[in-house]
Amino acid sequence: MRQPWRIAVIGGGITGLAAAVRLRDRAPAGTEITVYERSGALGGKLRTGELAGSTVEFGAESFLMRDPATGGDSAAVALVRRLGLADGIVHPTVGQAALVVDAGLHPIPGGTLMGVPGDLAKVAEVAETDPAADHDGGRPLLGPDEDVSVGALVRPRFGDQVVDRLVDPLLGGVYAGRADDLSLVTTMPALARAARVEHTLTAAVRAAQAASARTARAAAVPGPARPIFGTLAGGMSRLVEAAATASGAKIRLDATVRDLTPGPAGWRLTVGPTRDPELVEADAVVLTVPARPAARLLAGVAPEAAATVGALDYASVALVTLALPRPELPALSGFLVPATEGLLIKASTFFTTKWGHLARPDGVALVRASVGRYGDEAQLQLTDDDLLATVHRELSQVLGVALPAPLAGHVQRWGGALPQYAPGHLDRLAAARAALRTAHPTLVLAGAGHDGVGIPVCVRSGETAAGEIIEALGGSGQ
What does this protein need as cofactor (predicted)? Predict the structure, then answer.
């Protein structure tokens, strides 16, 4: 293999940038890394903006501090430390959120696993259940390799209200999807593992919670309990900028990769407009774009893998932010809205309440609402003005007060933003990756469309892909 290596990272979101940093850290000196981003900005769904003189996130607002599998730092925290930004980590000052049920606000019950309760009595205020339905059938809830939708597991045992009022809103807040469509193994792996052993859903939830607690205790360090979430003072775009700098990569913006073919030195990329394409040679490629553009690039290289990858569907969402002068807000971080309530809003964050470092002495509050559910996205066709007006009206309705007219508003649309993992997703992906690894070991897939949503998962996905590339090119990957 020629030296220095030339590695192309297609996609400039946090997955691609994490891959580029890991490549810089572990690939041989002199390795040439180029990041190709089709848009005019790096960061993907990480985008910090400004509204009415305040910093606000127009994309992902925070990251998990702890890795659920190990109990140690999440991959996002490890990257933040690697980039020298750890002193900028801040945590929510208000953690309690609410559910909108029967047009009223109710505290989200504690002791659940993504809304699935281990104690039915704890959810009695918001959902009716039939404890007798969660009977012991004499065998584990799931077979050794079985995957079902979350709803298929929970509805028969805990009833419709638990799914519709608890599980759906919590899953919807992360995936903009529905419990009846989303894979249990992909979205709730700890519960899936427990369900392969336990005979009742209550027992499975408790077993998953106990396993998580054991992992956390084993990894605990002396001192106060670690907060669940963190963000960066100054905005998540600081992470993007620092990663781009630390990677030492050549950054190509407005550079769409239109074709990917095996070439004399590894790979040939066709970059730029169809009328004036640029041909680029690379020894290896990390492909971090969403599933459908990834499938288009794979179609001529690995058609079966392309068909599997391209079958993944996505939900579109919009984030609507209002700057309100001295509004009457409850002491909550925000609220979630079940689809059964009939509102456009599916979730809202009281931004300057949740993140105390953003509080303003003049009392101006930032309130952000998420709009758009999978399969029910027609209202995203509303104009920005109509979305802003509808969100303002529904916030007033939920809170039971007439909110003041906003000083400013912003609508951020994320088309095709959130993957919808159908049951069997991980098995299908593993088969596609195995076939690709055998035929083309220097082409690796990474990103939310494959491994899951959330900043830590995307960072880990990019770093893992970088290690595979180094190994394929003859390095240690360590």
Answer: FAD
Residue by residue, what is the 3-state secondary structure of 39-77?
Answer: CCCCECCCCEEEECCEEEECCCCCEECECCCCCCECHHH
Question: Which regions of the chain are under pLDDT 50?
Answer: 477-478
**174-191 burial, b for 16+ CB within 10 Å, e for fewer?**
ebbbbbebbbbbbbbbbb
6 vs 282: CA distance, rounded Å: 5
Quick one: tokens of 316? 């579109």
Token pair of 165, please?
Answer: 């009022």
Strands (E), 108-256: 112-113, 116-117, 229-232, 250-252
Q: Which residues pair with 99 in a beta bridge?
A: 106, 336
pLDDT score of 119: 94
Q: How far apart are CA 331 and CA 294, in angstroms?
A: 43
Q: Is 377 exposed, middle or buried (0-12, 13-18, 19+ CB in 10 A)?
A: middle
Return the amino acid letter for 408. Answer: A
Nearest to 316 by CA among 186, 419, 453, 446: 419
Q: Report the distance separating Cα 398 and Cα 396, nearest Å.
A: 6
- The pTM of this model reads 0.95
Composition of the chain by helix, strand, coil, percent to 5: 40, 25, 40
What pLDDT sits at residue 378? 85
What pLDDT score does 223 carry?
63
Domain annotation for the chain: domains and CATH numbers: 6-45+236-312+422-472 (3.50.50.60), 48-94+313-420 (3.90.660.20), 111-219 (1.10.3110.10)
> Which residues make Cβ contacts (< 8 Å) with residue 427, sequence separation at least 6?
145, 147
Whole-number pLDDT of residue 477: 42
Distance CA(7)–CA(281), nearest Å, equals 9
Residue type, 46: L
pLDDT, position 291: 96
